[in-house]
Specification:
α1 packs antiparallel against α2, α2 runs antiparallel to α5 and α3 runs antiparallel to α4. The chain has 2 domains: 63 residues, no CATH class; 56 residues. By secondary structure, the protein is mostly helical. The protein is 82% helix and 0% strand.
């Protein structure tokens, strides 16, 4: 996001500099390239949703850590030595499937990709 902010701020500065101090290349060509790169970056960010992916991974990381602490300390539901290993394995497997399902909800659908792509082209 900083790249988008700084790039957007640089465009008018480069145009302004080209009026008195620098060449047309700096004032017209460079801002055009920066604008195109920013468009690609913004579109990619819209499609990939990196903050949502990060949030999903962090939430499940904390959940896995909590389960590990309960297991290592023999706390409920892992207090019975006869069933704790199987219960822990089952719980980790369930969390792994839930993580996969949550992750698939973050990925863009083909309709979203088409809509964003056509909006950028038009």
């Amino acid at each position: 996001m900083w790249a988008i902010t700084l790039g957007t701020a640089a465009i008018p500065v480069l145009i302004l500099l080209s009026t008195k101090y620098t060449s047309v290349w700096v004032g017209k060509f460079s801002p055009a390239l920066i604008a195109a790169a920013l468009f690609v970056t913004a579109s990619y960010t819209q499609l990939e949703r990196p903050h949502q992916r990060w949030e999903v991974y962090r939430r499940y990381q904390r959940t896995f850590e909590a389960e590990r602490v309960l297991y290592q300390n023999g706390a409920e539901p892992y207090s019975d030595p006869a069933t704790r290993d199987a219960l822990f394995s089952t719980r980790v497997a369930e969390l792994t499937v839930a993580l996969h399902q949550a992750w698939s909800g973050v990925l863009p659908t083909p309709d979203e990709v088409a809509r964003i792509t056509s909006r950028g082209a038009g």
